[in-house]
């Protein structure tokens, strides 16, 4: 069917409608989409207001045209890219801070605002938005909420979602609701806000968020600790977290990642497992750091360097460079889709052992690292993804690791969402009845499948997804992280 | 229609089916139901297992019989009592601790377990379930989750829901799902767990919960502070919270409540506004208390007494006795339905001023108190609810306060849920489009309205609820707190 977009000509918008090739191209993929998997929208709409979003969605719904919301494009699972053309609804021009209420520790900010911009606006009040993920410098508040993002500080402050009080959302019929409450707690009705969080724009388009804030900590210190074995490092982390060390970040990198990092930055770090930590406090930070050190020492701690300010940033640089280091490690090897499994923390050492075993079994170089305090593990299966046979083999290794995580009571995706890339794991993780319940909700709120069709749910008649239920079959991964 | 319950005879259950008058009577009301509003179920099923719940729900769904889950009966809004007979599904015999995983700070506990029992089971691990509400000694974990409960410690630890990782739930067709994940974070699929929290058994029946736990704090101290005026007290609270004082409880009682308490316990407390505080820490508790005191002093603090252990409990006794004190204050006056509004904390002084103004305007004695750190305010409109005219007048005063809270960006119910009593405020608070979205979800997951019919949503054709949208009309309140 060739869709007719002439209905757009009659709409009055504050923003802009574009069919320019460059705009369509710019909305065809995200950070995780391989070039050959990009799908261009037919039209890009740059919304400027909630009314714009409502107008477009309502008209598109009437005309059976799919609308896929798009923001910074930093997703990794194809969460915000079209699978069948239609309208890409770009929210990045809706980036105003509507109101800051310092006495309530609240900000109302439009969906397209970049994370760091929010913190800049809050600086003069001594406040900040604590759960910002590492991508906060480039990704939008709306995108973070839509994918249920989290990050390094989640171990102390929780996920982005935990700091969202209310959402202004445009539903598939164009109606505008406020879900949640500006009161810090409510038990009134269904938790629509929580349902919309992580729904990846398939149930509604987030146009504005009321976020909770916190005072900036007066003391910040951090650094890194070196352990002899990966097992010591993971057990030290697990012990620290369950002992209640008040740590704001606690990140693991394995010796393979240390190797990559050395190679990238031309440094001579020990090629050993390292744990990166950061502490936030208003008083007593050194006492807390000592508490942490004492626990680390019972796990064969070799060295622990702690600093503040610029020196702390230097100690952390290795952790920050990982993705670049992995990408540049070998010009013949791609990093593939970034793993994002999360397991209960007691299973973290076992999960890492699984990574090692699978890497050996499939004969790939698989550096792993991640937000260990949450049991969240990232990994790259380094392979030549241009070679179809090797790519299939690497994808199988990757998928096998996801299956193992699920078996360890974990999840396929801790913070990147499902998008297209992880659809095949939905039934394995949640069971058919739960996925059917999710489908029923989608059907109830978006009966014409106007919003972001094709995401989250495995295609019912797709043999590829059937295959994914059989571990002996090779798995197709649609996205690649470049 | 006379329903035929003979199909129950063919079901094999681990638990028990009863049509005894005493059992039916015991499941006809909750703490908030006036005797004359009680509705007996036709049958009470005491489930012993998830399979029981599934068997009953599935069969009832097939036979078009409503099922209302019931636990400790401590609800205040008729959340768990039938409105039209049917089956009362009692979960209190499902109270096992299935597993404690101290290394993961997790417990799997069945829905019927009492809050305090969970903490007793955890004691030997040095762990506890932090967000337990004040009713924790008598109410069940399942009931708390189903009504999105919270309480005094929420200001530090968050709501019950914030500590729920996963739920085992029986859906209306009898299928059993696990919603959420035992990993501490996941971004996989729709947040069914969050949707089920607070859905009051209208979308599914919770049979087991995986809860997050925390280490017991090594230091606990608390007590009370006396202020000259209510405004000083509320501003002191607001200032302490926004300044980031790490307080575990911060509760207000007004001078009217102090009067009640004196009368009840025959004490000679100052009849002035008081703020009750409790601090939890692993180190530095006195430093934190000093920080709090310094802030209180800028708001005309008159006296602050802090203690630990038994002495602390004594200081807190007044706060604990409030409901009893209010009930016994005057034999001719009933406390009516307990108010539970919550507003952004900056609006808390304004909300309390509204209570005073409305009390004066309607000429009722209205003591108020509550979880001030969250902006949550409880109040009683003391009146003779047996006198229809006075009852209507008191209900109007009560409802007017709810409307004012909503206008202050607040919510009708911070922690008691909607049930029957607060249905009339749903559209005012959320707007029609949001309530329609909630209705669509109900319809999608429970098309035959098998589970807890008549709750949360205002009856569409009920003129009483129409009236509630007009402030000039008298409002009917269906529940009363006894």
TrEMBL record, chains A, B:
InterPro entries: FAD-bd_oxidored_4_C, FAD-bd_PCMH, FAD-bd_PCMH-like_sf, FAD-bd_PCMH_sub2, FAD-linked_Oxase-like_C, Oxid_FAD_bind_N, Vanillyl_alc_oxidase_C-sub2
Enzyme Commission (EC) number: 1.1.2.4
GO biological process, one term: lactate catabolic process
Occurrences of domain FAD-binding PCMH-type (ranges): 37-216
Record keywords: FAD, Flavoprotein, Oxidoreductase, Transit peptide
GO molecular function: D-lactate dehydrogenase (cytochrome) activity; D-lactate dehydrogenase (NAD+) activity; FAD binding
Biased composition (Basic and acidic residues): 22-34
Stored Pfam families: FAD-oxidase_C, FAD_binding_4
Essential cofactor(s): FAD
Keyword Flavoprotein: yes
Signal peptide: none
Region ranges (Disordered): 18-37, 444-482
Sequence ranges of Acidic residues compositional bias: 462-482
Similarity section: Belongs to the FAD-binding oxidoreductase/transferase type 4 family.
Name recorded for this polypeptide: D-lactate dehydrogenase (cytochrome)
């Amino acid at each position: 069917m060739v869709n007719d977009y002439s209905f757009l000509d009659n709409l009055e918008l504050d923003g802009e409608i574009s069919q320019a090739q460059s705009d369509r191209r710019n909305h065809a993929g995200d950070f995780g989409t391989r070039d050959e998997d990009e799908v261009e929208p037919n039209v890009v709409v740059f919304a400027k207001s909630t009314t714009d979003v409502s107008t477009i969605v309502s008209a598109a719904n009437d005309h059976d045209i799919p609308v896929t919301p798009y923001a910074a494009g930093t997703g990794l699972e194809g969460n915000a890219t079209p699978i069948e053309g239609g309208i890409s609804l770009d929210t990045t021009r809706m980036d105003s801070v509507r109101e800051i209420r310092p006495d309530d520790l609240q900000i109302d900010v439009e969906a397209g605002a970049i994370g760091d911009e929010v913190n800049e606006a809050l600086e003069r009040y001594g406040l900040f938005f604590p759960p910002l993920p590492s991508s906060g410098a480039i990704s939008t508040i709306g995108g973070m909420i839509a994918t249920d993002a989290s990050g390094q500080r989640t171990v102390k402050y929780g996920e982005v979602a935990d700091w969202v009080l209310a959402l202004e959302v445009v539903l598939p019929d164009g109606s505008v609701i406020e879900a949640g409450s500006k009161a810090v707690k409510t038990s009134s009705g269904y938790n629509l806000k929580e349902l919309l969080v992580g729904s990846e724009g398939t149930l509604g388009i987030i146009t504005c968020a009321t976020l909770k804030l916190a005072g900036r900590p007066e003391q910040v210190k951090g650094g890194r600790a070196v352990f002899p074995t990966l097992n010591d490092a993971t057990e030290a982390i697990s012990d620290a977290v369950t002992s209640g060390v008040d740590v704001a970040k606690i990140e693991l990198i394995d010796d393979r990642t240390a190797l990559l990092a050395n190679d990238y930055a031309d440094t001579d770090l020990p090629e050993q497992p390292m744990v990166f930590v950061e502490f936030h406090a208003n008083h007593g930070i050194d006492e807390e750091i000592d508490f942490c050190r004492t626990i680390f020492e019972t796990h064969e701690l070799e060295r622990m360097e702690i600093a503040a300010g610029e020196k702390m940033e230097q100690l952390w640089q290795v952790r920050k460079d990982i993705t670049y280091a992995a990408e540049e490690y070998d010009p013949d090897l791609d990093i593939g889709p970034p793993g994002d499994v999360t397991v209960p923390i007691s299973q973290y050492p076992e999960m890492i052992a699984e990574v090692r075993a699978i890497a050996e079994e499939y004969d790939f170089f698989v550096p792993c690292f991640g937000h260990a305090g949450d049991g969240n593990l990232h990994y790259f299966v380094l392979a030549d993804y241009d070679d179809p046979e090797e790519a299939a083999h690497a994808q199988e290794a990757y998928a096998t690791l996801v299956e193992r995580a699920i078996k360890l009571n974990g999840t396929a995706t801790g913070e990147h969402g499902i998008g297209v890339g992880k659809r095949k794991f939905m039934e394995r993780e949640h069971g058919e009845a739960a996925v059917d319940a999710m489908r029923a909700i989608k059907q109830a709120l978006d009966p014409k499948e106007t919003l972001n069709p094709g995401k989250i749910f495995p295609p019912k008649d797709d043999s590829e997804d059937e295959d994914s239920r059989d571990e002996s079959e090779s798995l197709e991964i649609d996205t690649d992280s470049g």
